[in-house]
Amino acid sequence: MARSATYVAGVDSSTQATKVLVVDPTDGSVVREARRPHPDGTEVDPRAWWDALAGALGEVGTDDVAAIGVAGQQHGMVLLDESGQPVRDALLWNDTRSAPDARDLIDELGGAAAWAEAVGTVPVASITATKLRWTSRAEPENADRARTVMLPHDWLTWRLAGAPAEPTTDRGDASGTGYWSTVTGEYRPDLLEMAFGRGLSVPRVAGPGEVVGRTPDGLAISAGTGDNAGAALAIGPAPGEVVISIGTSGAVFTGHDRPSTDATGLVAGFADARGGYLPLLATLNAARVLGAGASLLGVDPDGFDALALDASPGADGLTLLPYLDGERTPNRPDAQGRYVGLTTANATRENLARATVEGMLCGLADAVEALVDQGVPARRALLIGGGSRSRAVADLAPDVLGLPVEVLSPQEYVALGAARQAAWALHGEEPGWTVARETTRDVTDSSISDQVRSRYADVRDGRAR
Ligand SMILES: Nc1ncnc2c1ncn2[C@@H]1O[C@H](COP(=O)(O)OP(=O)(O)O)[C@@H](O)[C@H]1O
Ligand SMILES: O=C(CO)[C@@H](O)[C@H](O)COP(=O)(O)O
């Protein structure tokens, strides 16, 4: 049943929460929004995401909505049995238990370069294929019951349509699995089998403007995508603009005209949601580092920002290596965070806050540098995500990154990208909306980036302890 309604809905099912926007498809303006939290942790029952989505959709109301699209946290392994029920909790992108499996898979294919050439990405623990290997090795009984593997957004999209629907995904999210190739645009069933020991059913990769199904209430459903591809769809970074998303993950990405095949494994050669490419680096340590710093100091986000802004650049020699939850880029799954250089002279709350912000930004600056090393230009950074709401992050970013920075106005860009895709599917062409741009913050002192980042590099590379 198609319906004549006015608006489109976009969903971001991210690590920490489900966010839903109801959007006017004529201009991209947000009409209503709702949010529901997700359980904490790196393995989650996918039904909790469904409950969060149902709750948020109930709150915004969909009587006047004609189409919906879902963007979701990338890479999570949703394994389903014969009857379509989850075999176990989903293992999320930030679960590092499959780090040894990533190393094994790299060896088995003949090294990192072989993976980069085959699919565009060298596996780390985040990549879905490594989670399949972990399950087949550590939980053979669960593996035996598995028939289908999906990603979080695939599963939510499939459930929105109600059973029995054809499972679908899109190239943006499929490109984070390790068994779909950004280079060829095809699944690599041989790599899935190599990881899992046998084949599994996978969702069909739908086209960017496709209607993949309808909800029982008649809303058209678009293909959806991964969260970062969703944000890229909403923002449309120009060549030379790099998006830096400071959420649970730190994600650094931009559109590109060809697939990346970085054998160092730093740059993940993902696809975007339009038919192009989205080279990306993701860190495990971003907004939560700021949260940890604030709770260490016993202050709220505003108090934390005030402290950080009261200290001098370089925090009088105090440096944070921000790998609090292990790290993915660089691949150090067992790493921990470290404050280095503490003396009685610099031991102030202000310096601790400053070093926390600078350390987190230095991790992102490394990511930008790796993108540039792969031939992707970075002349300006666009900051989004919960952590970009921090005044200290916004003020310090240009000098630490060594780049002009625009902090885009606080918006749910991932959900907005999903709404854009829903409007595209509904009307058969991509909408022409653009997001509001902000004033550029220029670098105030180019020596700060050199000074802060070189000290950070010493700590990162073990030259300063
Ligand atoms: N003003 C702020 N200062 C620092 N961190 C913030 C601020 N506002 C929100 N955050 C943090 O941003 C994160 C949520 O950002 P979001 O982009 O929604 O993450 P995700 O997409 O991973 O769910 C939380 O860790 C939250 O504490
Ligand atoms: O793993 C990646 C990208 O490769 C992460 O970016 C996830 O997609 C989760 O994003 P957030 O929930 O932190 O926004």
From TrEMBL:
Site (Important for activity): D12
Gene that this polypeptide is encoded by: xylB
NCBIfam families, per database record: XylB
Name of one Pfam family that matches: FGGY_C
Biological processes per GO annotation: D-xylose metabolic process; xylulose catabolic process
Residues covered by the Carbohydrate kinase FGGY N-terminal domain: 7-224
Protein's name according to its UniProt entry: Xylulose kinase
Catalytic residues, chain numbering: D227 (proton acceptor)
EC number: 2.7.1.17
Alphabetized GO MF terms: ATP binding; D-xylulokinase activity
Keyword Acyltransferase annotated: no
Purpose of the protein: Catalyzes the phosphorylation of D-xylulose to D-xylulose 5-phosphate.
PANTHER family, per database record: SUGAR KINASE, XYLULOSE KINASE
UniProt family annotation: Belongs to the FGGY kinase family.
Amino-acid positions noted as binding substrate in the UniProt annotation, renumbered to this chain: Q74, H75
